Amino acid sequence: MLNFTVITLFPPMFASPLGHSILKKAQEKGLIAVRLVDPRDYTTDKHRTVDDAPYGGGQGMVMKPEPLAAAIEDVKSKSASPRVILLSPQGKSFDQAEAQRLSQETELVLVCGRYEGVDERVKAFVDEELSVGDYTLSGGELPAMVVIDAVARLIPGVLGNLDSPKEESFTEGLLEYPQYTRPEEFRGMKVPEVLLSGDHEKVNEWRSAMSLRLTRERRPDLLAKARPPAAEQKATATGRRLYIALLHHPVYDKNGEIVTTAVTNMDIHDIARAGKTYGLRGFYVVTPVKALQRLALKIIAHWEEGYGSRYNETRKEALALARVKDTLDDAIIDVERECGAKPQIVASSARPGGNRASFAHLRKMLREESAPFLLLLGTGWGLTDAVLAQSDYILEPIEGGTAYNHLSVRSAAAIMLDRLLGRD
Ligand code: 4GT
Question: What sign does the dihedral 165-170-173-174 (CA atoms) show?
Fold first, then answer.
């Protein structure tokens, strides 16, 4: 139960918003109550004066402090733990997080200014000031109604569902996705196919993707503000489609011969840690050499289960991404098993030439398509032409703008992950 008390010179203004729909029902159900208090009832002169001319001159009138202070004090004296809020353009911005915070209170007192504003000394009687946006209104009444509506909706039961009305946290803090209802086609405009599919997972993915895209286009400030859980899920939603395979065979050596390179501790650790940081779904260490597979497994298991797991909890989390496979085909089959779809193969090559996909393009595909992607990283002198030829895309090379072109595979992996999954 949340008790609102509104201190206003115009109590009848509240009748309509409170007398309809959700807010009306919320009061009927006893989930909120709204009391209206007129500061004019706290005047002591015979003209019941609530305003006066500003000291220092200037146009308009200012709300006198005495009636407002008396009204606030009276309301406070009748309540256990009231939180007194002055609606004011100079206040802190009211947003969904503020609404969430206020919905935890039991007594909210909303003070509405009129004329040119309230005498500054009234502020000694309020706990905080809130603004509903950067524009000027004729009074605090509409802002008070905005606050009542936004806060009341968050009280369990007001919207019908008894548990907290929070939706999937994925889209929390982002703009809503587009909504459609019947008919399926209206004036030549069709409802997106996916919404008719009955596939709830696909529908949710589409809605999340639309929310993200809309927010990125229109309100990038909201994305930057998104709280860590939302941000993390945003990363993993695209990262969940991306896998990396580190190929130790087939790769070239410096003479252009096809060879098998050795597994290294540092590559496995660093790529796993970068992968974990950016929300990569899985990291394949590919080598056909049994002894090197055992070595890779030992490196992973040391951190997953051995002394290292107790020694360093965060590295254990990262190494849990790593999987050892005999061949590239085994890695592809593993992705398909996990995602239910064949991965698109993206090769990376530092050698110039070929038809290249840009990082921006792959980043977009990761966000907007549902297929998994397997990014191939070569060791030694790079992936063979045969592997490049069987790939769906060859990623553009990473260029540092110099003639020197010898990034380690783990540096290249980190840069690629940032370009594909990192924050804008
Ligand atoms: C805008 C807001 C607000 C006004 C807002 C004092 C006299 C303030 C008129 C009142 N305008 N109040 N709370 N953006 N105007 O929240």
Answer: negative
Which amino acids bring their CB within 6 angstroms of ligand 1? 87-89, 113-115, 117, 131-133, 135-140, 143
Beta-carbon contacts of residue 309 (< 8 Å; ≥ 6 apart): 302, 303, 316
For ligand 1, the distance from its centroid to the CA atom of residue 81, given in whole angstroms, is 25
What CA–CA distance (Å, rounded) separates 424 from 414? 16
Beta strand 189-190 with 185-186: parallel, antiparallel or unpaired?
Answer: antiparallel
Distance CA 355, CA 376 (A): 16
Q: How many CB atoms lie within 10 A of CB 114?
A: 19
The rounded distance, in Å, linking the Cα atoms of 91 and 131 is 5
- Report the CATH number that the domain containing residue 109 is assigned in CATH: 3.40.1280.10
Between CA 101 and CA 124 the distance in angstroms is 22
- Summarised one tens digit per residue, pLDDT across range 144-188 is 999 999 999 999 999 987 665 554 345 688 999 999 999 999 999
For the chain, the domain total comes to: 2
**Interval 358-371: pLDDT, tens:** 999 999 999 888 89
CA dihedral 70, 75, 79, 84 (to 10 degrees): -90
Of 263 and 216, the one with more pLDDT: 263
What interhelical angle do 228-239 and 359-368 show, nearest 10?
100
Q: Whose CA is nearest to atom 13 of ligand 1?
A: 88
Instruction: Quickly list DSSP for 255-281.
Output: TS-EE-PPP-HHHHHHHHHHHHHHT-S
Residue nearest to atom 4 of ligand 1 (CA): 137
Pair 286, 374: CB distance under 8 Å: no
- Specify the 3-state DSSP secondary structure of 245: strand
| Residue corresponding to tokens 């203004």 | 13
Give the residue, by CA position, lying nearest to ligand 1 atom 10.
Answer: 139
Provide the whole-model pTM. 0.60
Which residue of 8, 88, 120 sits with most ligand 1 atoms within 8 Å of its CB, as the best mutation to test the pocket?
Answer: 88
Residue nearest to ligand 1 atom 3, measured at CA: 88
The reply to whether 274 and 395 lie within a common domain is yes
Q: Which among 119, 152, 185 is the end of a domain? A: 152
88 CA from centroid of ligand 1 (Å)? 5
Parent domain of 73 = 2-152
